[in-house]
Amino acid sequence: MKKVLLLLAVVGLLSTACGSANQAETEAPDAAAAPAAETTEAAASAGVAIALITPEDASVPMGDAELVLQVVDPATNEPVAVENLEVDLSMPMDGMDPMTTMAVVEPGAEAGQYKVMTNLGMEGMWMMTVKSADAAMPGEAVFNLDVK
Ligand SMILES: [Cu+2]
Asked: By CB count within 10 A, which of 2, 113, 124, 144 is most buried?
């Protein structure tokens, strides 16, 4: 009699484990989506602050584009020039490697501003990663560009 009870207990444990495994699987997409929304906040708090000032709404027409970035020193809240600003543009593609494009970065009209000249050849959401490679003033920010 003891053996039968033990067996029943084991079966009960197995089905519970199976049930919770299924639950974990259905919750996974939500958990994966959450960190993406936090990315911009996390990036903004590390090192220099990098903002996209043109276009303000991050909406860019397809083709040749000129964007303006501004780098701000969080200690003084003033624009600051950094030695080297790296800009990487890519578009995630279903079942393919991400699409990339060229980006030429030049100092802009005012201190701490940088012009980004690029060509976005496809409509949709592009991801622009901007990184200050200045050892004294590091910083990184990610922007989602809506290309129309
Ligand atoms: Cu694409």
From this structure: 113
